[in-house]
Structure formats: structure tokens, C-alpha cells
Design brief:
This protein has one domain. The chain has about 110 residues and is mainly alpha-helical. Helix 1 crosses helix 2, helix 2 runs antiparallel to helix 3 and helix 3 packs antiparallel against helix 4. The longest helix is centred in the C-terminal third of the chain and has 30 residues. The chain contains 4 helices and no strands. About 25% of the residues are buried.
């Protein structure tokens, strides 16, 4: 968890510097936060091979793209719907990880 948080924080800092040159990204916007979280998930998956990160990383990236399109006024985005789907997808990913990890750890001793 600390690795994920540190990676997200570093990614958010780098993206915040980028936002000074490219104004659609703002340090406080949903898109930059979701991009940083997606980067943290990819880094955690790369390091630990956590199953939920393989699911949540792309989810956060897609949600970040939706909010970036909304900021650029390319598309209208129903924010509450995107956040709800993101919450459901994250919960499903953690439940699958819990179920998968529970099943694999019980068969290791056999």
C-alpha cells in the first residue's frame, strides 16, 4: 500500500508540473488524480502482480480519459455515473482478488 501511495504521489507531482504547460490538466482535477492513480496501479501490478491492479489500473485510466475529455469539452460526461462505475469496478476487483487469493492460498499447502 505504501508503494502504491508513493508512486501515485510522485505521478501526481509530475503530472502537476506538466499541467503548468498544458492547461487542460489542473493539479486538482479528477483527470490528473485518476491518471496518477492508474500509474500507481500499473507500478504496483508490475512489482507485486496484484490481480486487482490489473483491473483497477485500466479502469482509472479510462475514467481519467473521460474526465479529460469533459475538461477539453470534447464530450459530455455524467460525473456521478463515472464515479459510481469506478467504485463498483474497484469493489469487484478487490472482491475477485480476495476470492482468488483465498482460493490460491488454501491450495498451496496441499
Amino acid at each position: 500500500m505504501c508503494y502504491w501511495f508513493a508512486t501515485c504521489l510522485i505521478a501526481w507531482g509530475v503530472l502537476s508540473v506538466v499541467s503548468t504547460y498544458w492547461h487542460p490538466l489542473h493539479w486538482y482535477s479528477a483527470s490528473i488524480t485518476l491518471f496518477a492513480t492508474a500509474i500507481g496501479c500499473v507500478a504496483t501490478w508490475n512489482r507485486n502482480r496484484s490481480f486487482y491492479c490489473a483491473i483497477t489500473g485500466p479502469l482509472f485510466l479510462i475514467a481519467g480519459i473521460f474526465f479529460l475529455f469533459a475538461d477539453l469539452r470534447i464530450a459530455r460526461v455524467n460525473g456521478p455515473l463515472v464515479w459510481s462505475l469506478l467504485l463498483i469496478g474497484t469493489a469487484v476487483a478487490f472482491l475477485l482478488e480476495w476470492r482468488y487469493a483465498k482460493g490460491s492460498s488454501s491450495t498451496e499447502g496441499v
